[in-house]
C-alpha cells in the first residue's frame, strides 16, 4: 500500500467573526508551541493550580470545584447535566433556542424528565414564567442559557431565576459558553450552582479544555447520588480526584490545550474582567450601530454583545452573503439556526476578534455585499456610525 501524498498544512487566513471559534490570541498560539510535560509532572500539577485560580477569577466564584473538562464545550455541558441529573429527576430547561434543546436532549439521556419554559426564539425567559413552571413541576434542577448562541439573546434577571429555583429546592445550571470572559457573569453573587463554558468563544483559545464550576450544593449532589453517572469519562466524582488535592490519575489531560487556556486566562486577568466586559460591549456596540445605521436591525429582544443576530432584508439570500464575505473578504460569519434559519446572520464579537479594526472591516464588507444584491441599505452611513461609536 502506497502512502498518501498530503502536502504541508496551509489553512487560509480568516477573520473569524462568526459564532465561534474566535481568533486565537498570538500569545495563546505561542503557549501551545511550548514543550509537553507529563500530565502528572510536578510542573504540570503547579500549572493546574494556576488554571483553577484563573478560572475562579473569570467565573467570579470561590468554588473549590472549578476545572477545565477535557473536551469541547459540549463535554463540559454534558458533564454538568449528567452529573446533576439522576434517573427520575425533573429538570426545567428553556425552549427559546437551539442550546436549550441540546440541554433537554442531554437530560433525557441521563434518565431525567424534561419540562420546558416557553419563550419565543429571540427573546429571554420571563422570570415569572420560570416561577410558574417551578410551582407546577417542582423541578430538581433548573437550567438556563445565559448567552444563547443561536439567537443572540442575553438572559437578564439571572438572580430572579436562581432565587426562584432555590426557593423550590432546585439546583441551577447555567450555559455560559458565549458569555464567559466577554459578558458580565457573577457566578457566586447570582447564585448559580453549576456553570459550564468553552474556550473558543470569548476566551479566544482553541477548543479542547472547557471550563466548569460547581457550588458546594452541586458537589454534594454529585457525591451523594444513588446511581452512578452513566459516563465514566465525565464522572465528576472521579475527575475531582485528578483536579483535587490527590492529583490521582484519571485520564491523560490535553496538555497543550491546558497551556492555551492558562495563557488565555492570564490575558483576562491582565485586562481585568470588568474592563474586558466593557470592551466587548463597546466594540460590539459599534457593530450594532453600524448595521442599524446601514438600514438593518438585530433580531434579538435582548442584545448579546458577544453574538449579534443581524436581520437580513427581504429577498436577500443569506448563503450568498456568507459565501461572498468569506471568498472576497476572508471574513467568516454564520447563518441562523432553527426558527431563524435563512433570516439572519450570526456575527460574533468575541475575545481577540472583538477589535475595532475587525468591526470596521466587517461593516464595510457587509455593506458592499448587500449593495451588490440591490438591498435597500446605506453602507456609508453604517461605516460612519461604527466609527463614531469607536
Automatic annotation (TrEMBL):
* Record's protein name: Serine--pyruvate transaminase
Q: Which organism is it from?
A: Halococcus saccharolyticus DSM 5350
Keywords, ordered alphabetically = Aminotransferase, Pyridoxal phosphate, Pyruvate, Transferase
Query: Do you know which CDD domains this protein is assigned to?
Result: AGAT_like
Please state which protein family the record places this protein in: Belongs to the class-V pyridoxal-phosphate-dependent aminotransferase family.
The cofactor(s) it depends on are: pyridoxal 5'-phosphate
- A biological process term (GO) from this entry: glycine biosynthetic process, by transamination of glyoxylate
The keyword Transferase appears for this protein = yes
PANTHER family the UniProt entry points to: ALANINE--GLYOXYLATE AMINOTRANSFERASE, AMINOTRANSFERASE CLASS V
- Source species, domain of life: Archaea
Occurrences of domain Aminotransferase class V (ranges): 39-336
Spell out the residue ranges making up region: Disordered: 1-23
* A GO molecular-function annotation: alanine-glyoxylate transaminase activity
